[in-house]
Amino acid sequence: MGSGVPHPGDDLPAVSDTAAVSDTAAVSDTAAVSDAAAVLDAAAVDGRLAATVERLRGEVRAAHAAAEGRALIELAKGVIVERLGCGPAQAARQLAELADRAGLSRLELAADIINQAARDRLAETTDAFVRTAVAEPPAGAAASVAVRLRTAESAALSAGDTQAVAESLLRHALEPLGAVAVAIWTTGPDTSLSLRGHAGFGLDEAARWHYVPPGVTTAARQALIGRRTVRHASLAASGIPSIGRGRHPDGGRVVVPAGTGGRIHGVLEICWARPLDPLPQVVERQIEALAELCAHTLEALPEASPGGFLVPDGLPVPGGESAAALAELSDGLYDPALVLTPHLDEAGKLVDFRIRHANAHFQDPAGRPRGAVDGALLLEAYPATAGGSELFERIERVYATGEPFRARRVRLTALVDQVPLASLADISISRYGAGVLFIWRVEDESARLASLLQHAQRLGRVGAFEEDLVTGGITWHSQLYELFGRATTEPPVALRDLADHVHPDDAATVRRFLQKVLHQRRVGSAAFRMLRHDGVTRHIRVTAEPAPGGDGGLQTVRGAYQDISAQHWTEVALTATRDRLAATEEAAEERNRLTLQLQHAIMPPAMPPLDAPGLDVAVRYRPAESDSLVGGDWYDAVVLPSKKVLLCVGDVAGHGVEAATGMVVLRNALRGLAVTGAGPGQLLSWLNSVAHHLTAQVTATAVCGVYDPESRTLRWARAGHLPPVLVRGEDALDLPLLRGVLLGALAETEYEEAELRLEPGDTVLMYTDGLVERRDTAVHDSVAQLLAVARQRSDSLEHRLDQLLARSKSDTDDDTCVVGVQVF
After folding, report:
1. Going by DSSP bridges, is the β-strand pair 725-728/763-767 parallel, antiparallel, or unpaired?
2. Where is the PAC domain (predicted)?
């Protein structure tokens, strides 16, 4: 700051040194400054004159600072006079003595005394600075904060306009925080913003931003609409326009709404030249205290309270008579309306709204008269407004910001004998001066139901009619003209003439319908084909109800026509689909029946005794539980010309006719190949060629064995199949897993053979995977369970196979084949 200007926290010798400078001298100095400035602008050459002007300006600033300091000292002397009951002179001596003892200047002590007496937001801010100091604060730091804030307060309260308030806030309170400019905005009744005071911004910049229309998003409007402090570390980075952006593009901004009693009177916007780091909490509290000071100042200044404003229809309402004028305005409305004014608590905080007036069209949901709610608090009269509808919060927001609120189909709830009654209404909330006008229009239930009925008739292609049989007058719904293909200028079709507009085959149906309605006077309904003038045939259903007149005779018939063409064609298509589905199911059943017959003819559930010396052979075949899943499991046990016995089981992939056909091909091919006397490995190799080249992509698994009764040896091989199980004595084990891919997978492949010498009493079991497959069990666990069952003692081979099938509950809808041989 310039020379002669006291810095907050100094011992303030300027107070005593400049005490002799009177207000008259200050005024004369100001005039001298103005005259000197004029001379400087005219001459622009005299450097000594410019220095003189600068000196005089410094003296004026020093005089202003001294006057502001004297105001604080005088206020502190008044507090001492009130507390000690002494005179002004003794209070001045007491202040000086206390300042000397405390090592403070009189100005710093005066600010501390005022804080102790006021206990307001400024005092709380100073105390917070002291409490939150991390390290030892500099000497006089708290007093410096108190001096700055109280000096700013004194200057603001004594200022003659908002411009002086802005300059005082910047000079005394904000420049020590690093701020370079400040703007004070006031809000209009239409949420517009007007620049009423500024410091640190150029005059041209302020002229461009003197007015911000409603709806333009600026930093100040963000704080106003959000009712919260808005911080921008860099205004350019945020992309939000505001005053001074061109001069300080990277500077930070803090924008604080300035309000009292629940109403925002303006916005305080503070500008920094550089990007802004997060502010300490104590600094934020200082800024909030300054915003509150600014709000009280704006509330008292004439500029912040214009003499009048515009309400709907352009009616002027004086600011001091806004509630009375709003009451008069609301009585001219055709909708129910309430005039609300703020209700504050002892601390000046908005807690409710007072119902100042209920207009002539007011209707209370609980049936109370207007006088019962006039003068009552809103939350007491209508406690549900603070519930889920958030209506109270909407009113509070409108009052705070001035931004009107409009909404359709809002649910309003009122308590009638502690029972909540809800209704839908269109609402309007607006602020006018110190009052809020709340207007609502309850949705007409009959109109809403009529609208719903009209939409339902359109969607259902239904048209209503009414025919007066006495006068001949006919009333048609507009939908009927479209159904009948008639222009709205053509006359409606009478019921007696309806037979002339239907298909000849349906004329008798329509005549029976008319007989029932017009003569028997009973409710009737009929469906017919209507022939329209445009050649289109529509399927229509008509329903009519006769209504007798006062003399008991038939006077009126009411009813409806419905276009059921879509339903008719849907039913036709559905019937055709049912017929096709029935034919398909019948064909499928016949196909499955033939397939099962083929399968059972080739693969009977049991086989006749096999003439093999020293060998007992038994077979079990269990088809799938579902007849629609014909599988490809197969088995064979036959004595070859060499007196050896061919034993095999297999499983063709898939189900149905294809699987059954593939099973027949592979089984017969293996029988023919076995006549050659080849071993099981060679037989599977040849069978693989058959599956790969001579069938339509058939793949299968199989296990094949050749038993020699003379040597009691079993040579066997496998193609992707589970190995056989050997039961010897009280033990059961599965044979080794030989190499061999499934049949049909490769064009050429070889299969590994193994030889097993059997002893009297041994049993060999060959089976398909249907015996062990479970959806929720691993294969090796199922095989272990199979071995456990096979170990159990059995009276005969037949009984052993029955035990295996009984203990096996397959859940994979697959066939099961088991071939057992026992040596004796």
Report:
1. antiparallel
2. 524-576
